[in-house]
Amino acid sequence: MPAxxxxxxxxxxxxxxxxxxxxxxAAPYPTEVLAExxxxxxxxxGEHAPNDLGTISAQLGVLRGAATQAVVRLPMGETWAIKQxxxxxxxxxxIPMVESGAQAQALVRATRYPPAGVRGLGASLxxxxxxSGIPDYTTTAxxxxxxxxxVESRAGLDALDDILAVEGVDVVFIGPSDLAADMGHRGxxxxxxxxxxxxxxxxxxxxxxxxxxxxxxxxxxxxxxxDWGARVLAVGMDVLLLAEAARALAARWRDG
Length: 256
What we know:
With 256 residues, this protein is of the alpha/beta class. It is built from twelve helices and eight strands.
């Protein structure tokens, strides 16, 4: 019995465009609500949201078997942290601030079992193997891992070709806010040179046969990025969706 298919990875292989949302509440219940909304994927964010291994694992649990696929973003690409979330059941990872081909290669190795990588063999007690219910897990898991790396700096753009040359990188996800800040335009991704850098990067990623990804929080920008080739497109954040709806409701009654 092999490791379960990763539907997100399979959809990307078919050339589909997938729409997602950030999950930042660090709790399973709101993540379950998001999954019922119909997004293709959700980012369980461990970089800027207050998630830890326990809250990530709990959210992976409520998404198990859901049509909406889980993407776990770690705050760093440490091998030990990657091992833990893979054992907890993640099949798709998003790793921030990748700035070299060597860094990308190390991330690929962290997600693979020996001899292709360095992932520790402890899945017998983990959700990933259905608690030893999948006897062939360690020999089949590698093929179902989807690795997304974030390029969000000038150094990352300079190394983009080297990153794209690494076998095992499925998605290169542009981080527009951090990129704009690194280019001297903090808080403004609309500056023409930032937009041109994004457009060029998305095109290069697609030309290399990898799926380009990006986040955009307004419809027009998201549509533009899609037109530029983005196929892994985040179109919202749960925390902002609640905050904006709550502010609008309060203002309607307070000011109206």
